[in-house]
């Protein structure tokens, strides 16, 4: 059974869209960030603080591979950085997965993230001006990896339901 993988920058809507998609197509959703937190019984913030980002990236790769190796069909929502480390982008191309990049503009991401920074250690301490600059640079650096996905769905100016329907059409 193919795994359905949603990927994209922090705040593009992976968790939100995956939850709704899961109800719509009746395939369970697992959020990689949540699985990581459960595995070590620490929040993402605490993992970054206690052990640093490199440890987090190793753990993230390990848990991603574990999920891909499960026999059942699943929707997997990746973390924002997952495709960009540990050669995880190669895992987006296999026959055993359908990978979908939820593509959001800098403006959309800024609007969503500026209200919602605290649980995201990479941006938690940034001012609005710093945040906008950071998103622009970071998205530029990460786009190469995000573009390894098999499909791309633009999410700007779409409701959650519209984006879900775009994904359902890809899966049909
Ligand atoms: N049309 C929309 N589609 C998706 N999310 C939306 C939309 N409009 C507003 N939002 C909001 O944007 C935020 C998207 O955050 P969400 O946590 O789903 O993103 P994420 O990609 O999982 O981020 P992270 O990588 O940090 O986990 C949520 O607060 C959600 O309610
Ligand atoms: O974009 C990133 O690198 C991250 C995104 C989140 O989903 C978490 O996986 C973590 O905060 C790192
Ligand atoms: Mg999420």
UniProtKB/TrEMBL annotation:
CDD domains associated with the record: SK
Cofactor: Mg(2+)
Pfam families reported for this sequence: SKI
Residues annotated to bind substrate: 33, 57, 80, 142
A cellular component annotation (GO) from this entry: cytosol
Biological process annotations from GO: amino acid biosynthetic process; aromatic amino acid family biosynthetic process; chorismate biosynthetic process
Gene Ontology MF terms: ATP binding; magnesium ion binding; shikimate kinase activity
Localization per Swiss-Prot or TrEMBL: Cytoplasm
Enzymatic reactions: shikimate + ATP = 3-phosphoshikimate + ADP + H(+)
Binding site residues for ATP: 11-16, 120
Class of this enzyme: transferase
Entry note: cofactor: Binds 1 Mg(2+) ion per subunit.
Keywords: Amino-acid biosynthesis, Aromatic amino acid biosynthesis, ATP-binding, Cytoplasm, Kinase, Magnesium, Metal-binding, Nucleotide-binding, Transferase
Keyword Amino-acid biosynthesis: yes
E.C. number: 2.7.1.71
InterPro entries reported for this sequence: P-loop_NTPase (IPR027417), Shikimate/glucono_kinase (IPR031322), Shikimate_kinase/TSH1 (IPR000623)
Pathway connected to this protein: Metabolic intermediate biosynthesis; chorismate biosynthesis; chorismate from D-erythrose 4-phosphate and phosphoenolpyruvate: step 5/7
Residues bound to Mg(2+): 15
Family the UniProt entry places it in: Belongs to the shikimate kinase family.
Subunit structure: Monomer.
Function: Catalyzes the specific phosphorylation of the 3-hydroxyl group of shikimic acid using ATP as a cosubstrate.
Protein name: Shikimate kinase
Organism: Flavobacterium glaciei
Gene: aroK
